[in-house]
Design a protein that fits this description.
Distance between the termini: 55 Å
CATH topology of the largest domain: MetI-like fold
CATH architecture of the largest domain: Orthogonal Bundle
Number of helices: 14
Low-confidence stretches: none
Helix content: over 70%
CATH superfamily of the largest domain: MetI-like
Strand content: under 5%
Order of helices and strands: HEEHHHHHHHHHHHHH
Strand order of the largest sheet: 1-2
Number of domains: 2
Mean pLDDT: 87
Largest sheet: 2 strands, antiparallel
CATH class of the largest domain: Mainly Alpha
Structural class: mainly alpha
Length: about 300
């Protein structure tokens, strides 16, 4: 009887394992087809040159990496991406935190304001680009009409990268704000009550209670937004036309990859650009992880 019970249990466990594998199989297949295989193929193609007429790959070793690292256009695109990140991440995080704190107060229409600020996240990138290109238009744009100026917001190489960065900040505020609101709701009210008893004003409570206890959420947002800013593409692609005089001073490293891999058909060179970006992101992430122990406080 005991042996039969063991056999029945083993059969049941086998069925359970089979059903478990069946449920996770679609996810595993999707990960392999959409993530792992493209990643491995990108690494392989970075060592190859696209064959004639786009067929076949010719192994060229480190030639693509040498060409990428010695091309000033690559470093300009990487610098453009870093400049964009320096605008989008600090401003996006700061404004989002302030809005989250304000929307946690007892104000009329709180849900309405939260919805308004989150709307940019659900807008199509093409629609966002079209609206902002109209706002920035030098001849009949709204900004120049309001301020009575004649500024080439997105065609002047000196300010175009700032204009694009402003769009990035506007687009991401709502997403960051929702994450900050979630983090604020996790802070125990006891800390604020104790600070109030000690005579701390609202501003002091913000800097000495809210900011430190919100640091885990802030660190998560900063880290994810840095990676997101370093891989920006759709915003650049939609706003900056190929004939734009400021394109060289604003195109991101991913935009350069797209141009080389899909427009010029040089997939090996484009793959090498991607690998350089991956290494750069890994270095930045490593530095951030080291900084976490110093700047993040867990309550």
């Amino acid at each position: 009887m005991k042996e039969n019970a063991k056999k029945k249990m083993s059969i049941g466990k086998k069925k359970e394992a089979i059903w478990g594998l069946a449920f996770i199989a679609p996810t595993m297949i999707g990960l392999f087809v959409l993530n792992f295989y493209p990643m491995i193929n990108t690494v392989y193609q970075s060592f190859c040159k696209t064959g004639d007429f786009g067929r076949g790959n010719i192994f060229v070793g480190l030639a693509n990496y040498k060409a990428v690292l010695t091309d000033p256009i690559t470093w300009q695109a990487l610098w453009n991406t870093v400049k964009y990140s320096l605008i989008e991440v600090p401003l996006g995080v700061t404004i989002s935190m302030l809005l989250a704190v304000l929307l946690q107060q007892k104000i009329i229409g709180k849900s309405f304001f939260r919805t308004i600020f989150f709307l940019p996240m659900v807008c199509a990138p093409a629609a966002v680009a079209m609206v902002w290109k109209w706002l920035y238009n030098q001849q009949f744009g709204l900004l120049n009409n309001i301020f009575h100026t004649d500024v080439a917001w997105i065609s002047n190489p000196n300010i175009a990268w700032i204009s694009v960065g402003v769009i990035g900040v506007w687009s991401i505020i709502g997403y960051n704000m929702v994450l900050f609101i979630g983090g604020l709701q996790e802070i125990p009210k006891d800390y604020y009550e104790a600070a109030e008893i000690d005579g701390a004003t609202g501003i002091k409570q913000f800097f000495h209670v809210t900011v430190p206890l919100l640091s885990p959420t802030t660190f998560f947002i900063v880290q994810t937004r840095i990676i997101g800013a370093l891989t920006v593409f759709d915003l650049m692609f939609m706003v900056m036309d190929k004939t734009n005089l400021a394109l060289n001073k604003t195109q991101s490293i991913v935009y350069l990859f797209y141009t080389q891999a899909f427009t010029n058909g040089n997939r090996g060179y484009g793959a090498a650009i991607v690998m350089v970006l991956v290494v750069f992101i890994m270095i930045v992430t490593f530095i951030l992880q080291k900084a976490e122990k110093r700047f993040v406080f867990y309550n």
